[in-house]
Design a protein that fits this description.
Layout (H helix, E strand, L loop, with lengths): L2 H21 L11 H10 L3 H7 L5 H11 L10 H10 L5 H7 L5 H11 L13 H12 L4 H7 L19 H10 L12
Length: 195
């Protein structure tokens, strides 16, 4: 190992660092954070909209990274094996209120992403439309383990059954309903009101 070469390289690196410092950038060309910018981050965190307005030359990720470096960002609580066991036991049946109570301080996205990584699922539930015939088609599709897109394909409609918006009873597409009922192995039966 040539010590003269190592000392020359160290001297060049020191000169390069000084040049960067004078220009206000680091070795990679990014602007060095000033004390004023650090004060702005401390005062406005966690309002990222205000931070982006106050620091227009900094990206969202740079601000987030700086908040973490300054030690003011929210620390994430790690998932323990006991937490994962509890999540596996209750995730499929519990409501979100019960999950929040079981895991205080965790958001819905944190719980969902951890459950997805661990392979835990919740039963699929189709939202109610308020129209009995459409709700019965949805429940039949659910019991046959079909998606509403499959029902749309069977009924030759684009997104009549899979769209989640409630429909007006006067604007029902009876042709599509008849096709879907026939494809799901059912019959349309009229019911008469007694006057």
């Amino acid at each position: 190992m040539d010590l003269r070469r190592v000392s020359k390289d160290a001297a060049r690196a020191q000169v390069q660092r000084e040049r960067c410092r004078r220009r206000g950038v680091n070795f990679y060309g990014y602007r060095i954070w000033t004390k004023i910018e650090d004060r702005i981050v401390r005062n406005l965190y966690p309002d990222y909209v205000a931070l982006r307005k106050a620091l227009p030359l900094r990206s969202y990720w740079a601000i987030q990274s700086r908040a973490c470096y300054l030690g003011i960002s929210k620390k994430r609580k790690p998932w323990t094996s006991r937490d994962l066991q509890k999540l596996g036991r209750i995730f499929s049946q519990a409501t979100w209120a019960e999950l929040y109570q079981a895991f205080p301080g965790r958001t819905q996205n944190e719980i969902k992403s951890r459950a997805r990584k661990a392979g835990y699922t919740r039963p699929r539930v189709y939202p109610k439309t308020g129209v009995p015939v459409l709700d019965s088609i949805r429940s039949r599709a659910f019991s046959l383990n079909l998606s509403l897109l499959d029902v749309d394909k069977m009924a030759r409609t684009r997104s009549y059954f899979s769209s989640a918006r409630p429909r007006d009873i006067e604007k029902l597409n009876w042709k599509a309903i008849r096709r879907a009922v026939k494809a799901l192995d059912g019959e349309v039966m009229p019911t008469w009101k007694n006057h």
